[in-house]
Design goal:
469 residues, 10-stranded parallel beta sheet, 40 strands, globular
Length: 469
């Protein structure tokens, strides 16, 4: 069962500022100062006991810069653990966030955003009182505090061609065995936390690979391993990934032409890679593979699926990925005739993915129940968003649909209908879709972002190059 979301906002521009802070669940205001040459928007997007997610937007009000470092200090022992859209380090109380390769240049009045996960003492989480950009102190700005999100209504559906009215977040169904209230400190959420969890190669020594032969050997080796991909690797076909592997992309790591095949193995993590021009699938999870986490990758211009999960696989989380310039995105269950193997399995969480004009299968679901599709951003998907078929059970909640004519529906092509429950989604020039039936309860803890904020959250954080690994 999720804990109530708390939000904290700090905006600094050119005059005296106030920051909205969460302290023991109460909103309080303190003074903050920022610089004439920049404006900083700092917010806590979500918070739970022991941890929180922060978002920062930097606007350059001075001369253009090529390369930047933003610094601030915490006053209550907060520790930044990972970041996306910047490289973050911390020394004592001071945090330094430095641009990554794609956002180092800031024109006058230009902005960029990044995010991070951090720990706090669960009692007091005061925000920074000052910032410096490239060692120049900032001053100024005022913002209105936002109040904590409270449970609300489910919204109203729209008619075809007319957007529905978004609702406000509600608590997910309470399972018979309540899950722990604290999300895993790794940032992993969803089905991959179940069945013993997903740790990949754990603390195994890292091996760096930079060509197809070395990558193939490392992926196919027995035993736990952490594999770091460096540079651009061109290959073909599908490369077998064995159990207990963590596959991480170094900055700019790209795999062209081939894909990764997790077949009958378990406990695999794939993060921070760019895949393009694959000639089969980019990532294929099949033959009862379990405990797979696919996170912060970018996919474009491939032949078949970007991430396909099928043939009895289970306990999978697909999070913070971006798919663009591609047709068949994410298939869950490959055949209407495979119910004997798939029923009771194919449980997958899809969250904070950016379906950026990807045409269809975002995802297309057979048999799995419950499949959880939450806090994703859908933009201009020409075919459809989500399809629930063959008696699947899909919960579609807290997503942002923009310019999507067919947001979600039951049945697809020759596949019979599934069940679909939709709640608290946000529609921009998009209709509410088709729903029906009931879906099994979600058994894990998760923090639901307000649907109207999902576009900004996801576009700031999804895809390769947005995290430090």
């Amino acid at each position: 069962m999720r804990t109530p979301q708390r939000r904290m906002t700090l905006l600094a521009s050119t005059a005296a500022a106030t920051a909205a802070l969460v302290t023991g669940g109460l909103l309080t205001a303190v003074s903050a100062q920022a610089a004439a040459g920049c404006r900083i928007a700092y917010s806590v997007a979500s918070q739970w006991p022991g941890g929180f997610t922060g978002n920062v937007t930097v606007t350059n009000l001075g001369d253009p810069v090529s390369g930047w470092t933003l610094r601030w200090s915490y006053g209550a022992g907060q520790q930044v653990s990972q970041a996306w859209g910047a490289t973050a380090t911390q020394s004592g109380a001071q945090v330094s966030a430095t641009n990554v390769d794609y956002n180092g240049t800031l024109a006058t009045n230009g902005s960029t955003s990044f995010g991070f996960n951090a720990s706090w003492n669960s009692s007091s989480n005061p925000g920074p009182t000052s910032f410096t950009l490239n060692n120049v102190a900032c001053t100024g700005g005022t913002t209105t505090p936002t109040t904590p999100t409270t449970p609300g209504t489910s919204g109203t559906p729209g008619t075809p061609g007319t957007p529905g009215t978004p609702g406000t977040p509600t608590t997910p169904p309470i399972p018979s065995d309540p899950p722990p209230s604290v999300p895993p400190p790794t940032g992993l959420v969803g089905w991959a936390t179940q069945n013993g969890g997903t740790t990949g190669g754990g603390g195994a020594p890292a091996t760096t690979v930079s060509n197809a032969s070395a990558l193939t050997s490392a992926l196919n080796a027995t035993g736990a391993a952490v594999i770091r991909v460096s540079g651009t690797i061109s290959c073909s076909g599908m490369l077998r990934v064995r159990s207990n592997k963590t596959i991480l992309g170094n900055s700019g790591a790209t795999i062209i032409g081939c894909g990764l095949n997790v077949s009958g193995d378990r406990n695999v993590i794939i993060r921070n890679l760019t895949f393009r021009d694959w000639n089969d699938d980019a990532i294929n999870v099949q033959e009862s593979a379990t405990n797979i986490w696919i996170d912060h990758n970018t996919f474009s211009n491939g032949y078949d699926g970007a991430v396909d999960v099928k043939r009895g696989s289970d306990f999978v989380t697909v999070s913070w990925n971006r798919v663009f310039n591609h047709d068949k995105t994410m298939l869950l269950g490959h055949s209407d005739d495979n119910g004997a193997q798939d029923t009771g399995h194919l449980r997958v969480t899809y969250h904070h993915n950016w379906f950026d004009g990807s045409r269809q299968r975002n995802p297309r679901v057979r048999f799995g129940n419950p499949v959880h599709v939450y806090n994703n951003y859908y933009r201009a998907n020409g075919g459809y968003g989500v399809a629930s078929t063959e008696n699947a059970g899909v919960l579609v909640e807290g997503n942002y649909f923009e310019n999507v004519n067919d947001t979600y529906h039951l049945g697809e092509a020759d596949s019979g209908p599934g069940r679909l429950v939709a709640r608290n989604n946000h529609f921009v020039n998009s209709p509410a879709g088709q729903t029906g039936g009931s879906v099994a309860s979600i058994p894990y803890s998760y923090q639901l972002d307000t649907a109207s904020n999902v576009k900004s959250i996801v576009t700031a954080g999804a895809g390769a190059g947005r995290i430090t690994v």
